[in-house]
Specification:
This protein is an alpha+beta fold. It has helices at 13-21, 42-48, 52-56, 113-116, 203-214, and strands at residues 2-7, 24-30, 36-41, 59-63, 66-77, 84-91, 97-107, 121-124, 128-134, 142-145, 154-156, 167-168, 177-182.
């Protein structure tokens, strides 16, 4: 994805406030060279942030007519307004090695024997996974094929088909569970007891009064 940024010289709270009033977003780009203060068009950035690829893939930043490869590292939103307050990018090159969480895309779930034949459900334990790789090898997403998943089985990080240069960050764990098969519970029939009719008011009392009158 490509976007345009502009250098900015003014810094500080007041300068950032004026930028936001003018429909701009203050930001910074660092790494692989000197850090630079930048500004971006707010609306263009706001809608770009809604796209998955803008968060998980290498971006082409046009800064002063020069194209640079960058990666979105952080952004700050207003507490309750749809307003981007600040954004951080990292420059990368062929030697940059990084850690990044990448989204998981699940496919062929409806064709899995566990779902199609055994009427089970697939629980997506993870929606993204952290990897370590060279910047130029960073995938936009990782595909998880559930087409062969059977009843009682699970999908683990060791089952993923990745480029040999990509390493999964396990944080000390041997393997990570990505998806599991869950059996559906049979619905229990709820039998509601028929309501007991309440005695009519005064019905029993009337018979008692009648006996007393006869006496």
């Amino acid at each position: 994805m490509k976007f345009t940024a502009y250098e900015r010289s003014q810094q500080g709270t007041g300068a950032s406030r004026r930028l936001r009033i003018a429909g701009k977003v203050p930001g910074i780009v660092y790494g692989a060279g000197e850090p630079k203060m930048i500004e971006l068009d707010h609306n263009a950035l706001f809608f770009a942030l809604k796209k998955e690829a803008f968060h998980s893939s290498l971006l082409d930043m046009d800064l002063g007519g020069q194209m640079q490869k960058v990666l979105l590292r952080d952004f700050q939103m207003h507490a309750f307004k749809p307003l981007v307050l600040h954004v951080d990018f990292q420059r990368v090159d062929a030697t940059t090695r990084l850690r990044k969480k990448v989204p998981l895309h699940f496919v062929n779930e409806e064709n899995a024997p566990a779902v199609k034949t055994d009427k089970c459900l697939v629980n997506h334990v993870m929606s993204e996974i952290e990897i370590e790789c060279l910047a130029q090898k960073l995938p936009e997403f990782i595909t998880v094929d559930l087409g062969e998943l059977k009843k009682g089985e699970s999908v683990h990080s060791s089952d993923l088909k990745l480029d040999p240069s990509i390493k999964i960050v396990r944080h000390g764990r041997k393997d990570l569970t990505i998806a599991t098969v869950v059996e559906q519970k049979e619905e229990e029939e709820v039998i509601q007891a028929a309501p007991v009719a309440a005695p009519e008011k005064g019905k029993g009392k009337g018979k008692k009064d009648e006996k007393q009158n006869k006496k």
